[in-house]
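Notebook entry, structure prediction.
Reason for the run: the old model in the group folder had no record of what sequence produced it. Starting over properly, with the input documented here first.
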Amino acid sequence: MQKMQFSLFVFLACWISSNATAAEETPSGKRPNVLFILADDQSPFDLKLYNPVSKLDTPTLDRLASEGMVIDGAYHMGSWSGAVCTPSRHMIMSGRTVWHIPDRKPNSKSNPNIGNADRVPPDLADYTMAAVFNRAGYDTMRTCKAGNSYDAANKKFTVLHQSVKRGATDETGSAWHAERVLDYLADRERTHDEDPFLIYFGFSHPHDPRNGKEGLLEKYGAVNHTDKNSLPPANANQPELPINYLPEHPFHHGHPKLRDEVAVSGVWEKRDERTIRNELGREFACSENIDIQIARVLEKLDAMGELDNTYIFYTADHGMAIGRHGLQGKQNLYQHTWRVPLIVKGPGIPAGRRATGNTYLLDVLPTLCDLTGVEAPETSEGTSFRSVLEGQTDSIRDVLFGVYCGGTKPGMRCVKQGDWKLIKYDVLDGQVRQTQLFNLAQNPHEFLIQHPSPHPNLADDPKYAERLEQMEALLLSEMKRLDDPYRLWDQPKD
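New structure, fully documented this time:
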């Protein structure tokens, strides 16, 4: 009973505080709106904004970037599940770190901290994105894929649409999500709704199966390949192989029978050039379609006179490999997968700027609160990066931590400080124990020792022994700080 009274007190205090401070207005004299756009599985290096040689055309995102800010160092922190999107989306919605969030199922053991109320609050859903903005007087709407998400938090949206749309037509693909947003905006017009809004505009693509629309597939030389026993046709219009492509990873990734590495339709276990280039073409077709759908929504906001009064965030729940380092999925900690794209436009954000950021996706909630004058919930552990968006500082933190342990334990860990990055693997019951040390200024693509490069993995180079020791200590410190329940083979046990 006492615990229930305390929770009620916290709830009321948060409600009063939120409504008292949510009066921030833009130059228009109105409280700002929020359009949060989330792609499902997209490496930043697919976009020309991060990789100028990419063939992917995204004129809408390019325009958002030219009118706002590109964050070069945005990360998703990691996962304790093979479905990497699940913890990522929990972090987005709650603003909490990777070991302090629940799983979809209450009895899940994926995160060993679940069940510890001090680390994973049982009533956390009441302090997630929609719940916080509802109490602050915002209208909240969400459209996104169904599944592998934070169900309890999603239900807090006043208007909610959930469906997996990965087909090759407007009815079965990304246009479906855009139509839900356009219907919502049309309804606001019809009812003369003047409340500020928060729209969570999520897509089901370019997550596999990457069933692209016919015209876009042709543009990128791809086909929706479905025959496991044959290769897709070669086509000169397909995207080139990634610069860090490998036919296989030099050691096992540590997650036997991982769906993303063995069962993705169109790829399966193949890593040959024709398969990977075709799959990239399919992904680009899906990603350009997302760009087209975003343009439709922005055009509607502009026609309603709401575009200049809206903060627009574009990001993804995590990156993807698709041939990079001989991998296919999202269960790794290389930059192509640990990093995410992040573009922000809105009132007071200088146009055409870039910043390092060093942000996590869990920083989105406190940042949205900061920008709109809404009190961030006390449960949030993220840091607002408003100061970065407004050009007052280049980044909000010095050290970044990453984890993947959805397969065998304790899994992979990484830590980054400045140009230096350490990745460690402790998987398959000790059969794979590897250490990688990269200087990303010299080796931005994380070429491995097997790949010709003047600056490959430096972990075994005696010249960098002191740096390796520093990074090892930093990793352990972050693991302790973030309540990581595991330790690697060469770390002291608590």
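Summary: The chain has two domains: 2-397, 403-481.
The old model has been moved to the deprecated folder.
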